[in-house]
Task: inverse folding
């Protein structure tokens, strides 16, 4: 009985930790996406998610290491999250489609603050 209670407490703590740190994990998902795309020459996914040509060219010029920090809580609804994120000293609005867990989220759109 004691081990069942401990197991439930550990699972509950893990669940809460995953959802409390969702904003940080979405920043990590965005950073990982950008790093992968910028390693390829043509970056087809980056072109698809960029809100404009200007945003695409700004993102293509990013230098490694890419630093992403979430600037506020998400502004989304249903299964889409919107975040203002600082990517290498410039603010972008990033839209993510939520997965079953925050680490499974997918970048849907990145817009430069200048283009809004």
Result:
């Amino acid at each position: 009985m004691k081990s069942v209670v401990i197991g439930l407490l550990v699972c509950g703590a893990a669940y809460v930790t995953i959802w409390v740190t969702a904003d940080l994990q979405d920043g990590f998902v965005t950073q990982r996406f950008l790093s992968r795309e910028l390693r390829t020459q043509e970056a087809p996914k980056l072109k698809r998610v960029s809100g404009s040509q200007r945003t695409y060219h700004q993102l293509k010029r990013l230098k490694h290491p890419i630093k992403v920090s979430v600037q506020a809580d998400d502004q989304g609804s249903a299964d889409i999250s919107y975040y203002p994120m600082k990517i290498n000293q410039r603010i972008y609005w990033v839209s993510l489609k939520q997965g079953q867990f925050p680490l499974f989220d997918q970048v849907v759109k990145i817009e430069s603050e200048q283009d809004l």
Remarks:
- Strands lie at 68-70, 80-87, 90-97, 106-112.
